[in-house]
Design brief:
Layout: H1 6-19, H2 23-29, H3 35-46, H4 60-63, H5 68-74, E1 76-82, E2 85-90, H6 96-107, E3 110-115, H7 118-129, H8 136-140, H9 152-156, H10 161-175, E4 178-185, E5 190-196, E6 199-206, H11 211-222, E7 233-241, E8 244-255, E9 258-267, H12 282-292, E10 297-302, H13 309-320, E11 327-331, E12 342-345, H14 354-361, E13 368-371, H15 377-387, E14 392-397, H16 404-412, H17 416-422, E15 423-435, E16 441-443, H18 447-456, E17 464-466, E18 477-488, H19 491-498, H20 503-512, H21 518-527, H22 533-539
Helix pairs in contact: 10-11, 14-15, 17-19, 18-21, 19-20
């Protein structure tokens, strides 16, 4: 076909023999040809159809017609069923005869082979199977054993199946950018799910006979008691993967079918997070920076578990830390290690609770105090008193939005007059998935978005996009960003706090004083094509 000369052929064959690499791989690595050229030549040589790409929405029932082990062995991907014909794409036609014979016998369909380039095959394969974790080889090597028969050497030897399985699940969680790994025993077996971009997906399952060993292995890694199965336990371990350091927070809990484990994955480099990288809109970023540069008072971050509150606190500390300031944090547990900051970890068993630590910290001449979470009256009271004696206090609180943080603290027993003096601002936060730029499509702008856009964003062209889904993303989304509402406590709000106003009254007053709700902040991200209306509406209400 004129792609290479005889001299190139001889040179490539010599390299192939010395290195043990496939001939085609040598040609591409040395820039003699491309994978497309090789696919063209193979299609011509075997007189087979040549396709440039595969559809991104291959039906699952078509994929499932062929077992995964045959897909891997023959490098084939079924992509269309047409009557009695089953169309298969491959970049390896050397096994053409075996493929046709075996697939015909297995499916009772007529296989039709089309040639695809290796790079496209690898991309499509990763898209279809990349979110799955292949544990079949490990499981096949395990002899069926009773769940009670767990020997220590079985979970400490690096070659033990339980050790290999635990390592595979952890490493794949990192590769797939999961924030959490859920290992859940059921009546029939054990399911493993990853939370990716805030959504849980099942990635694999394994026999119940292995579960006690896997949980014991995770407990050993986390420094937990492997003999104790009746009560919840918490621990952590560290792991280096591809030159990056990861921290794992581990929680185990007994269920009716056995112990469930959840592993929260934290990337150490996130401790260098900056406020400007969090996804704040320009308007809210200005308001947030105004808050964190106050010399004293309380700033609260609110939102559900997993809404990025700790990450935002770390970014705020990074923004305001300085050699002239003494910053102390009290956390349970310490999630991110921040350079230049004194970090303390709560240890209830040793008597080191939030209140006890906070009393000690106040004798340490702090300028800024970060409290991981306000959970009780004593912690809240000490935080308020600390802010009234010239300290800037940052903390988190579990409430649905910014204004309801005030009633939550009053319900904990904080005097409204003290709270009105101490509180300088509350930031409500949620995380929304970002649209994939490769496949998002423009759609009609709905009334809710138009109404907000006319008031707050008249300068932005009213356009809206929706998720589609392609091989480069998860159901049309890739990554996450924050939507926020930043409530600054003004003199009007302070008066309402003194009067014991309701959440609705506080919200209306905050909006009049310039707070944009999380939905209104989300609308800006919708108009800029960052996320979709469906995604914003999933996490916050429009009214």
């Amino acid at each position: 076909m004129g792609y290479i000369t005889q001299q190139t052929l001889d040179k490539a064959l010599e390299i192939s023999q010395k290195s043990g690499k496939m001939f085609g791989e040598v040609l591409v690595e040395n820039h003699f040809v491309t994978w497309n050229d090789i696919a063209d030549a193979l299609a011509a040589q075997y007189n087979l159809p040549r396709i440039q790409d595969l559809p991104s929405n291959i039906p699952a029932d078509v994929i499932n017609l062929i077992p995964k082990n045959l897909i891997d062995t023959y490098r084939i991907i079924p992509y269309r069923k047409d009557g009695n014909n089953l169309w298969l794409a491959t970049d390896n036609v050397l096994n053409y005869t075996q493929i046709v014979r075996e697939i015909r016998f297995l499916t009772n369909l007529y296989p039709k082979i089309a040639v695809i380039s290796k790079d496209i095959y690898d991309t499509v394969y990763q898209y279809i199977f990349g979110s799955q974790v292949d544990t079949s080889e490990i499981i096949s090597n395990v002899e069926t054993a009773k769940e009670e028969e767990v020997k220590e050497e079985f979970v400490e030897s690096e070659e033990a199946p339980a050790v290999k399985l635990a390592k595979t699940l952890v490493e794949n969680g990192i590769v797939q950018n999961a924030s959490d790994i859920h290992i859940e025993p059921t009546h029939q077996g054990v399911n493993v799910r990853y939370r990716v971009d805030g959504v849980l997906r099942k990635v694999t399952s394994y026999p119940k006979s292995m579960h006690a060993s896997v949980i014991s292995r995770i407990k050993i890694m986390s420094g937990l008691d492997i003999a104790e199965k009746r009560v919840p336990q918490d621990g952590k371990f560290f792991m280096k993967y591809l030159n990056d350091q990861y921290d794992f927070r581990v929680s185990t809990m007994p269920t009716i079918y056995g112990e469930k484990a959840v592993l929260r994955i934290l990337k150490v480099s996130s401790s260098e997070q900056k406020v400007s990288d969090l996804g704040f809109s320009e308007y809210n970023l200005k308001r947030f920076r105004e808050l964190i540069n106050y010399p004293y008072g309380i700033i609260l971050l609110t939102g559900p578990t997993g809404s990025g509150k700790s990450t935002t606190l770390v970014a705020a500390i990074n923004e305001i830390k300085d050699v002239s300031k003494n910053i102390v944090t009290i956390e349970d547990p310490v999630e991110y290690n921040i350079e230049g900051v004194n970090q303390c970890q709560v240890n209830v068993e040793a008597g080191l609770t939030y209140p006890r630590f906070l009393r000690s910290v106040l004798r340490q001449d702090p300028d800024i105090i970060m409290i991981g979470e306000i959970r009780d009256k004593e912690t809240a009271q000490l935080a308020v008193e600390a802010s009234m004696t010239g300290h800037l206090v940052l903390s988190t609180l579990h409430t649905n939005d910014a204004p309801s943080a005030i009633s939550r603290l009053i319900n904990l027993g904080i005097d409204p007059h003290m709270l009105g003096v101490a509180l300088i601002g509350v930031v409500g936060q949620r995380l929304v998935r970002k649209l994939c730029n490769d496949c998002k499509v423009e759609t009609k702008v709905n009334e809710d978005v138009l109404k907000v856009a006319k008031i707050f964003y008249p300068e932005i062209k009213p356009v809206m996009y929706q998720a589609v889904g392609c091989r480069n993303c998860n159901e049309g989304y890739k990554g996450r960003t924050a939507i926020n509402e930043v409530m600054i406590v003004t003199s009007k709000l302070r008066e309402l706090i003194y009067q014991g106003a309701s959440d609705n009254e506080l919200r209306e007053a905050a909006i009049r004083d310039g707070m944009r709700t999380m939905f209104e902040d989300g609308v800006e991200k919708i108009l800029r094509g960052i996320t979709s209306y469906e995604e914003v509406n999933r996490v916050v209400r429009s009214a």
